[in-house]
């Protein structure tokens, strides 16, 4: 059933989207603020990530224990996370408890107190996460791929979690300043989905946030890096590891790119459908070389990467890279089969209802829809947008994005390797 979405913009710039779902007697909320890792100041990478970790650890009205008491006694949940473009406060509660939980979620976003001891604790936790990532071949490979595809301080070339050096230097004052500058009503989208009338949900959000003030920072999208004309191999030797991780990628496209839906179908056919698309069928199933292999596409406000990931033994690194090269070259020369394209389209259309099965799933979908300006009827239009993708569209986008001669190939693990 199509979503019936109410959209309202308050005088302070806050955008509200609400929808009713009578199937579940609960409400899920998402407050998405345009303050993700891309907004980190130069040299202070990880600011958004640390800000998100501290937001729900105390506010002007509630300390951390009071927040926990408000939630746990009602079986409610609240969490905060930072991504590339947004910090998102998520909360879920029974519909009857919306009057108690919504104020807490809004207070966490609007009035965090950033207690000094919580900043120190969460900074130590984030430093541990950074240390763990530095010891994980998959994380090392992806970080190196992004840094190579997006050089010279480009926001997409920096890990959202930051570095040990940058996070180690973050202070409470830095988080307060970041929050003051970036967490404003005009930069915020508030979504609520559940078993309450949409206008009632919107009225409740307006009552909590209508007096919020602050001027939104203008949205800036970093320019795409210069086109690559050659192939690059990066090796991150980790001799004590049991397997190597391969990250093989290209600069992709943004969510608003006219080729997005064709690229979505292409990516599904390449490395997602069934057990990993064409790549999974060849490299994992038929050749038995990889523990896993798949492709992914990160189309956001910027032209994010499209990459192939594979986990293999060191002995199979060169064969795996050669197999990826072969499959991409075959696609560029001969194309996908029409069955591959049709299967991918059917899968993508068929998976939409599963994305919208839960209140939280609907809330996340609507947050994405508003973030990228897709329109509140996007769920109704999406099947036809995917269905309209032709075989020729998929091939045109494959030729635009997937040239092995311009790939960046990163290997992290027990391989010191040869040329890729």
What does this structure look like?
The chain is an alpha+beta fold and 420 residues long. The chain is built from 15 helices and eleven strands. The protein has helices spanning 47-55, 64-72, 98-110, 116-134, 137-149, 164-168, 172-182, 198-209, 260-271, 273-286, 317-334, 338-355, 359-371, 378-387, 391-401, and strands at 5-9, 15-20, 26-33, 77-82, 87-94, 188-194, 232-237, 244-251, 290-297, 305-312, 408-413. Strands 1-2-6-3-5-4 form a six-stranded mixed beta sheet, with helices on both faces. The longest helix is centred in the first third of the chain and has 19 residues, at 116-134. The radius of gyration is 23 Å and the shape is globular. The N and C termini lie far apart (49 Å).
Helix and strand arrangement:
Blueprint (H helix, E strand, L loop, with lengths): L4 E5 L5 E6 L5 E8 L13 H9 L8 H9 L4 E6 L4 E8 L3 H13 L5 H19 L2 H13 L14 H5 L3 H11 L5 E7 L3 H12 L22 E6 L6 E8 L8 H12 L1 H14 L3 E8 L7 E8 L4 H18 L3 H18 L3 H13 L6 H10 L3 H11 L6 E6 L7
Tell me what portion of residues adopts beta-strand conformation.
15-25%
Share in helix: 40-55%
Average pLDDT, all residues? 96
pLDDT < 50 stretches: none
- The structure class reads alpha+beta
What's the gist of this structure?
This protein is an alpha+beta fold. 45% of the residues lie in helices and 18% in strands.
